[in-house]
Amino acid sequence: MVMFLALLLSLYTPQARAESALLEVERKTIELYRTALPAVVNVSNIKVARNLFHGTVEVPQGAGSGFVWDAQGHVVTNFHVVQGGDSFVVTFHNDPKKYQATLVGTEPKKDVAVLKLKEMPKTIHPIRVGVSKNLAVGQMTLAIGSPFGLDHSLTTGIVSALGRKIDGIGGVKIHDMIQTDAAINMGNSGGPLLDSSGSLIGMNTVIFSTSGSSAGLGFAVPVDTIKLVVPEIIQYGKVIRPALGISVLEDKYKERMNIRPDGGAVITYVDEASAAAKAGITGMMQDRMGRVFIGDIIEAIDGKAVNNLDDIFHVLEEHKVGDTVTLKVYREGKVRNVKVRLQSL
Which residues are CB-neighbours of 241 under 8 A, at least 6 positions away? Predict the structure, then answer.
């Protein structure tokens, strides 16, 4: 009996005694962090450059965070973390080895990228994937990443707002972004945003700040979006997205041409092989005198008003390649409905 008690006392370490004195919420946070930590990685972006004196050299371009998606060694991070890189290095917590990774594919319009480890660590721990559609403002959030190179840092906060539309690196807004006040800084990009069960609810992506540091306005791509995008990237190397095969005039040029910002999407160019061209859609034209003539203006798609590329992108995102949509088109004072069968982008 005495030996058994001595064994129990030996197991009851100073650290265990210290943790037993913590509040329940503190113990829970520590547990969540330790559970998620093996799935969180650092991602280094390396560019191959030519040097006049040394030939080809590898130049670190930047670094961010990421998380293990599956047991096959796929790692998810932000597109802007890997953008422009020629090779990539992934490191794990408490593992000195640097693991080379290849780029599987990207989806810039959602700021998502997928890497694949060339060599696997002895054990691999995929992140626990949750759901974002049922989130509520006020619930707890945990962000793990490497702000300013300080690897595997933890910050906590709450869901500050939902459904935010934030300008993305891909030229269109990213919808349904999660706003959180958990501190996010440079280097956190690509890292996981977790809920109080330790499940992934988003990927930390961007901050609003006048100083470049956290101002309590961080935004994460929702996990429901990631769950749609990542499997396609893994299977095809890209997201297969439906399109009309057109280009649209930017808002700043619409103002110069005295076209109302809400006056519809002005088509500038139509691909000759596109579904839009087959349906008789025309773009802007210019005569020999340099005068520009407005072609078709798309006012709505399937009854939903569109005024720019961003609007068109998010309406078409609800469809699949092969679907038929109805365009409400304005040309020379007349409005007509045109059916177009969507093609692959």
Answer: 316, 317, 321, 344, 345
